[in-house]
Specification:
The chain is an all-alpha fold and 141 residues long. The protein has one domain: P-loop containing nucleotide triphosphate hydrolases (Rossmann fold, 3-Layer(aba) Sandwich). Helix content is 59%, strand content 3%. It comes from Ascaris suum.
Length: 141
C-alpha cells in the first residue's frame, strides 16, 4: 500500500467518502456496505480510480499532467508491477493481465506507454471480429 492509499484508507475508516470533492460521510445501510466494498476494491487497485484524487494530486504537486513515476508510485500494486514486469520482459516472457474495471485498464495503458511496453487491450468495446485477430496476434508474438 502506498502512502496515498494509506491516507485514503484512513479516510474510509473514519466513514468519509473519497469520491467527492469534499470528504463526506458515507451512507448507512446495505447499499452503503456494497459501495464500501467497491471503494475498497478501487483503493486497492489504484487511487486514481476515484474521480477527484488525480485532480487533487495534480494541484498539490503543481504539475499539469500526472505520468511516469507519479503514475505507479501512488499504488502498491503498480509499484510491484513495476518491479516484476522488467524481469519478465528481460527473460522474454509474455504477460496476460485481467482487470474487472475498464478504468483500471486505462491507467495500465498509461503505465505501459510510459514504460514503452507493447500491449493489446481487449475489453467489452472491442468488436467481435477484432477479438479473433487480437488473440491471434498474442499467440504469434
Amino acid at each position: 500500500m502506498s502512502a496515498l492509499q494509506r491516507i485514503l484508507y484512513q479516510h474510509m475508516q473514519k466513514g468519509l467518502l473519497i469520491d467527492s470533492k469534499h470528504c463526506l460521510p458515507l451512507q448507512q445501510g446495505g447499499r452503503a456496505l456494497m459501495n464500501t466494498v467497491v471503494h475498497l476494491r478501487k483503493l486497492c487497485n489504484h487511487p486514481f480510480l476515484f474521480e477527484n484524487v488525480e485532480d487533487e494530486c495534480r494541484e498539490y504537486w503543481k504539475v499539469p499532467d500526472i505520468s511516469g513515476k507519479d503514475l505507479y508510485r501512488v499504488s502498491g500494486k503498480f509499484e510491484l508491477l513495476d518491479r516484476v514486469l522488467p524481469k519478465l520482459k528481460a527473460s522474454e516472457h509474455r504477460v496476460l493481465m485481467f482487470c474487472q474495471m475498464t478504468s483500471l485498464m486505462t491507467i495500465m495503458e498509461d503505465y505501459f506507454n510510459y514504460r514503452e511496453y507493447k500491449y493489446l487491450r481487449l475489453d467489452g468495446s472491442t468488436k467481435p471480429d477484432e477479438r479473433g485477430q487480437f488473440i491471434g496476434d498474442v499467440q504469434c508474438a
